[in-house]
Automatic annotation (TrEMBL):
Signal peptide start-end: 1-19
Protein name: ZP domain-containing protein
Coiled-coil blocks: none
PANTHER family: EGG ENVELOPE GLYCOPROTEIN-LIKE PRECURSOR (PTHR47130:SF6), SI:DKEY-19B23.11-RELATED (PTHR47130)
Residue intervals of the ZP domain: 613-794
Pfam short name (any one): ZP-N
Highest taxon in the source lineage: Eukaryota
Keywords: Signal
Length: 794
């Protein structure tokens, strides 16, 4: 860096050798270039330039141009000469701020400043294009002292026509500098750098420049600039805030006078904080290091703004800016996304993020006891960290409506819903509306929205699954596709909702007792297809009803089943000569798993006439009228084959026997298909022609009763001899054989056989523990003419 004097005044110039450009050719070239978004503005203390980053993503380059050439604005050179360059890829901007006292700026009486820059932008094609950027700024007069705190340098300028301090106001450090200056015999510019607690160093302006301290003279001001962190700088805590301070005194001998200028700069080192809502920056309420001598500074004005401009009180209030002046510090804060900053949204890892960056401008006016004004400027580029804003979904489904309603909230204002994927099928928002799906956008908080989608349970895209206990589960998985405008970056959110509806209950039958049986009725429901109706282990079908004698009526609205008494499926209890209970049960089974979901049973009281019941527990119960064969027979004198087995109950004509199949002389016969148990009801008292009783060992009356069970339905018959039948047996009654009184021996069965209906049911007494094997002299097929009931009876 070379310094020199220019005639007409003391002007210290910064001259760096650089290759010159042909300005004429440059301008002709730039006139043919595409338009580039470049914003150039004159602010209170500097020129502000903003450039959009090109699609290639490469950062633009700047060169400062003056009559001596073009000078690249690098990081180090910018700090030396008063340029602040910063790139912000996330927001897509590049900023350049140039001090009015920067090296290559034209200066007319410290009132009109002319800037010229060359801008180089690299495009995706790989070609670097050049643009000319120039601006002339007219500014109001500067106060006597201006201290500027930029991001990369400190700068102080002092008007050169200030009156000399009085003797009483000269501080110790300045007195020491005065003594050094008086003793110096040279007329060249000298710089004394003072640091608290250390010996001052005096050097020429050229030597100071090599150390990073730059001094220049304008038509009416002396300017001192240096970067942060210099060796002669010190960091002090002022009212709890770290402040960097550097003290320089410039002096030279002119004729018989020594001219001295005290240049002190002090800047807050606070980098700013973000509390989740606002960006904050702190500085001491009064920057005491700027005090010269024992005098004091008082603050007369504090203001803040953005981008180098301080806004008035009303504008600050409207934007939410806040300046909180405490006893020791000043807190300047700006709310997130406030006007004047730049908000940027982007997607990272399928997460929507946003950040906010702002160039906070702080300005304070300080006045000392002599009325000399110091204007303190500070610019802080502050930004929030990336703030994730994840959507959230709320299931607002109302079961009574049978409609899924899902709320997707926390959608920023620059995001739109473009499509939804319902259980794997993607549908655009426009198509969804045409298909009848309701998707609405509703406001939430400021700058935030929500989407609400409604999908009926019965929609074809909803997954329906039957659960146990008569419930349906409806499931809907939603993939929301959201796009950030205008860049149309997509991100996704997933919602899964389900609803459990107890509207798939098994059919319920209403049972009704009739004179000759039981009738069942049920109205059809929407989900009847999920169940089978069964009687025992057999599914109720029209064929089964026909085979067993049921009367089945099934139309579009109602199913009616009439079950006549004594058909297969009844269970009989409490059998007496007067009455008995008959119970019939319908089972509802899952058509898929065959598990029983519900039972509909009806128990009715019937009058007893004649019946034969073969229970699953191995008990035979019979009620019959013996006077049909022997009108004079006494029912009380009847027995079974074992004469000790007498009827449990009798009346004038009928008898009731109930006995275990292994008792009372019951005979047992088995073949490859059936097991048959047989006993006889006998009457033993006959009368002669002269009405005198005749006693004989042969029965004069026999009625054969049988219970026939399928072999496959009896468990452990030959293992533990216990009787356990899967289904009731088939009962058979053979009409009794009448024996003439004159015959002493019983007659053989007649060829003509009168059949009785077959019955089945459960016994009214305790079942026998064991089955007794008896003799059977006749094959089962001899009795094939005896009815075994519908479908063979099994």
């Amino acid at each position: 860096m070379a310094f020199g004097f220019v005639s007409g005044g003391l002007l210290l110039l910064c001259a760096v050798t650089c290759a010159l450009r042909d300005s004429k050719n440059t301008l002709q070239q730039s006139s043919r270039l595409p338009q580039v978004p470049i914003v150039v503005e004159c602010k209170a203390h500097a020129l502000f330039i903003s450039v959009d980053l090109p699609p290639s993503g490469s950062e633009p380059r700047f060169e400062a141009i003056d009559a001596t050439g073009a000078y690249p604005v690098t990081e180090s050179y910018g700090a030396q000469c008063g340029y602040t360059y910063s790139a912000h890829p996330l927001v897509g901007l590049v900023h350049l701020r140039a001090s009015y006292f920067s090296c290559h700026t034209g200066n007319q009486n410290d009132e009109v400043f002319t800037f010229m820059f060359g801008l180089f932008i690299m495009y995706e094609s790989g070609k670097e294009l050049f643009f000319n950027v120039s601006k002339t700024c007219s500014v109001p007069p500067f106060p006597p002292r201006v201290v500027t705190c930029e991001e990369n340098y400190m700068e102080v300028s002092v008007r050169t026509d200030l009156p000399s301090p009085t003797a009483g106001s000269i501080k110790e450090g300045f007195s020491a500098a005065s003594a050094v200056a008086q003793s110096s015999a040279v007329e060249a510019w000298q710089v004394m750098l003072q640091q608290e607690g250390q010996q001052s160093e005096v050097m020429s302006a050229e030597d100071a420049a090599t150390l990073g301290y730059f001094i220049m003279v304008t038509p009416g001001r002396l300017v001192f600039r240096t970067t942060f962190g210099q060796r002669h700088a010190s960091v002090k805590m002022v009212n709890g805030v770290a402040v960097e301070v550097i003290q320089a005194t410039v002096f030279f001998r002119q004729n018989w006078m020594v001219v001295m200028v005290d240049l002190v700069a002090a800047c807050s080192l606070d980098e700013g904080t973000f509390d989740g809502y606002r960006l904050h920056w702190r500085t001491p309420a009064v920057m005491t290091p700027l005090v010269v001598g024992p005098s004091e500074l008082r603050s007369e004005y504090i203001g803040m703004g953005v981008d180098g401009e301080v806004v008035d009180e009303q504008a600050a209030t409207d934007r939410g800016y806040s300046v909180t002046i405490g006893e020791d510090t000043v807190d300047s804060s700006i709310p997130f996304a406030a006007e004047g900053g730049i908000r940027k949204s982007f997607v990272t890892g399928n997460v929507y993020n946003e950040l906010y960056t702002v160039q906070l401008t702080y300005q304070q006016k300080l006045v000392d006891q002599n009325g000399v004004v110091t204007k303190h400027n500070a610019v802080r580029q502050m930004a929030t960290p990336p703030i994730p804003r994840s959507p959230f979904s709320v299931n607002q489904t109302t079961l009574e409506e049978r409609v899924f309603q899902v709320y997707l909230g926390n959608i920023p204002f620059d995001v739109e819903l473009v499509s939804v994927e319902l259980n794997g099928q993607e549908i655009s928002v426009l198509t969804a509306a045409k298909m009848g799906y309701s998707i609405t956008r509703v406001p939430e908080e400021e700058n935030s929205f929500a989407y609400i989608i409604r999908v009926p349970f019965d929609d074809r895209l909803v997954v329906k699954q039957y659960l146990s206990a008569g419930s349906f589960e409806y499931t809907l998985d939603i993939k929301w596709t959201l796009n950030i405008r205008p860049q149309m970056e997509a991100y996704y959110h997933f919602s899964s909702v389900s609803a459990l509806i107890a509207d798939a209950l098994p059919p319920v039958f209403d049972g009704m007792c009739t004179d000759n049986g039981i009738s069942f009725m049920s109205d059809h429901q929407q989900y009847d297809y999920l169940w089978d109706i069964a009687i025992g282990s057999y599914t109720l079908t029209p064929q089964l009803a026909s085979e067993r004698g049921y009367i089945l009526t099934n139309d579009s609205t109602t199913l009616i089943l009439a079950v006549p008494l004594f058909t297969i499926g009844y269970v009989y209890e409490g059998i007496t000569l007067k009455q008995f209970y008959g119970t019939f049960e319908l089972l509802t089974r899952s058509a898929k798993t065959l598990e029983i979901e519900q039972s509909s049973a009806k128990r009715c009281l019937f009058q007893t006439t004649e019946l034969l019941v073969c229970s699953t527990e191995g008990v035979m119960t019979v009620v019959t009228d013996i006077t049909k064969a022997v009108p004079s027979a006494d029912p009380a004198r009847t027995t079974l084959l074992d004469r000790s087995c007498r009827p449990q109950e009798t009346d004038e004509t009928r008898v009731l026997f109930s006995f275990g199949l292994n008792t009372c002389g019951t005979r047992f016969h088995i073949d490859w298909q059936y097991v048959t148990y047989e006993n006889e009801i006998t009457f033993h008292e006959l009368y002669s022609t002269d009405s005198r009783p005749v006693i004989t060992r042969d029965a004069a009356y026999r009625m054969t009763i049988r219970c026939i069970y399928p072999v496959r339905g009896i468990e452990s018959l030959f293992v533990d001899r216990k009787f356990r039948a899967e289904t009731p047996g088939i009962g058979q009654i053979k009409d009794p054989v009448k024996v003439p009184p004159q015959m002493l021996k019983p007659m053989q069965p007649q060829k003509r056989t009168v059949m009785k209906p077959s019955f089945q049911g459960s016994a009214a007494r305790k079942p026998a523990d064991y089955a007794r094997v008896g003799q059977w002299s006749e094959p089962l097929d001899k009795y094939a003419q005896w009815s075994l009931g519908p479908n063979g009876g099994f």
